[in-house]
Amino acid sequence: MSRRGSPRNGGRTSAVGVAALPRLASELLGLDDEDVHGVVVDDPVRSVSVLVDATAAARAQGAKPGMRVLDAQQYVPQLVVDRIDPERLAAELHVVAEVLLSCSPVVEPVMPGFVALDLGGMVRPLAAIAGDVKRAC
Question: Burial of 103 by CB count in 10 Å (0-12 exposed, 13-18 middle, 19+ buried)?
Fold first, then answer.
C-alpha cells in the first residue's frame, strides 16, 4: 500500500492497494496443483521467458513466478511450461477490475495478475469485496 499527498488532490493523503491474483493464469488453464507446471505469456516460449504463475507442486520444488524458465528448470528439471494468451489473461483481469470498480472509484488492472485500486474511496469493507471477486472469477 502506498500513501502520498499531491498538489493535484489538494495535498490529501491517498492510499493505493494492490490485489494480487497469484493463481489466476493456472486457474484459467485448468492446471492441477499436483502437476509440475509453470505458465508464461511469451510466444514462442523460450528459456528467457518469465514465469507468471506456477502450480503448488512446482513452487514446492523451487519454481516461482518471476523466474526465467531456464532458472526455474535448474530447480525443477521436469517443469512443464504452458503458455497462456495474454489477451485472455488481460480479459480476466478486466472482469476482476469491473467487480472492484463497484467498490472503489479508481481501479487499474496490471499484468500479469494484479489489480491496483484507490483504498481511500472504498465504499465497502475489503472482506466483502474479496468475496465478490472470488465469485466473479
Answer: buried
> Do 40 and 65 touch, CB atoms closer than 8 A?
no
Model confidence pLDDT, tens digit, residues 7-24: 555 555 667 888 888 889
Q: Cell for 25?
A: 493464469
What's the CA gap between 77 and 95, in Å, rounded? 35
**82 beta partners:** 39
Residue pointed to by grid coordinates 467498490: 103
CA dist 129 → 37, 106, 111, 119, 126 (Å): 30, 14, 20, 12, 5
Q: Report the predicted TM-score, pTM, of the whole model to 2 decimal places.
A: 0.71
Q: At residue 127, what is the residue type?
A: A
Q: Grid coordinates in use for 114?
A: 494484479
